[in-house]
Design a protein that fits this description.
By secondary structure, the protein is an alpha/beta fold. It has 13 helices and 9 strands. Strands 4-5-6-7-8-9 form a 6-stranded parallel β-sheet. A 3-stranded parallel β-sheet has the order 1-2-3.
């Protein structure tokens, strides 16, 4: 299946318009084929964690998806995987290491789950060159302050390797979602580099407060400001000036390929905020380039 030329055209014009030769996308998903198909089947079912119809725009074979991101001018991206049960994370980490080895523009990604083996396989992933981790508090249904993760968070804080953490209560609340558990985690590890997925939707203000309090906390724009998100969990207009204040710690994320609209719309949604070209350049490239050392 080929990519829509209008989609590529808009993204190219967007980059040209703001003077940005390339994009860095910190929130994209590449998984073993069997896992990805189960994820897509869940979205198709409009299950309780999604709550509504969620068509997958880029339901393509793996290499087509890689080529699609490259056609958009995405210089670096992630392979965000996440474990939802024990004895799963280490296997996923083996797969992502292999994927990163054969896909040089993918930032080597890993994950973990609260289990006794977690410190061992996280250390192995770091030693193998993992540059970003992903955990999904909603899907994994675990408390990020679980004692089984104490050594893991300590390692990540010491290494300065960020974790993309889906911890907001959108699109459906879980037992451990919301700012409370993350706030408790940061009190224990104030230098822990977290990237709050979806800007913490719908608890936007509370997660912005955490970013104000902890310098290592960043937020990604995954699905935020799009028509799809604004229909149910709109970003509060009164908080828009805070996006400028925190301009150096906001990173572009798309949730590609699992989005119910085009990649172009995700960028359009950011541009129509009217926060300026320099803000867009920071969000869509410069901040992630600095974080991951992509000179």
């Amino acid at each position: 299946m080929s990519v829509d030329e209008d989609d590529i055209g808009y993204v190219t014009e967007f980059r040209d318009r703001i003077g940005l030769p390339e994009i860095i996308d910190v929130h994209t998903h590449f998984m073993p084929d069997s896992v990805m198909r189960k994820v897509w089947a869940y979205f198709d079912s409009a299950g309780p964690l999604t709550r509504r119809e969620w068509p997958i725009t880029y339901r393509h074979e793996e290499q087509v998806r890689v080529k699609t991101l490259r056609a958009f001018g995405v210089r670096a991206f992630t392979a965000l995987v996440y474990a939802h049960k024990p004895d799963m994370a280490a296997w996923l980490n083996d797969w992502t290491a292999q994927f990163a080895a054969r896909t040089p523009d993918c930032l080597h990604t890993a994950t973990f789950y609260p289990e006794p083996s977690a410190p061992g396989y996280v250390r192995s992933a770091l030693d193998a060159g993992a540059r970003v981790f992903k955990v999904h508090i909603q899907v994994g249904d675990f408390d990020p302050t679980d004692p089984l993760l104490t050594d893991v968070w300590g390692m990540l804080a010491d290494a300065g390797v960020p974790t993309v953490i889906h911890c907001g209560s959108g699109p459906a609340a879980g037992r451990f979602t919301g700012p409370g558990p993350v706030s408790a985690l940061l009190r224990r590890f104030p230098n822990l580099p977290l990237i709050i997925a979806h800007m913490g939707s719908p608890e936007y203000v509370e997660f912005l407060d955490l970013a104000d309090r902890y310098d290592a906390v960043r937020l990604d724009t995954t699905m935020n400001f799009t028509d799809f998100f604004e229909a149910e969990d709109p970003f509060p207009r009164a908080a828009l000036p805070r996006l400028t204040t925190l301009a150096d710690r906001i990173l572009f994320g798309s949730d590609f390929p699992n989005i119910p609209y085009t990649y172009a719309h995700a960028l359009h949604a950011l541009e129509r905020l009217g926060l300026g070209d320099e803000w867009l350049r920071k969000v869509c490239h410069h901040n992630a380039a600095q974080l991951f050392g992509l000179a």
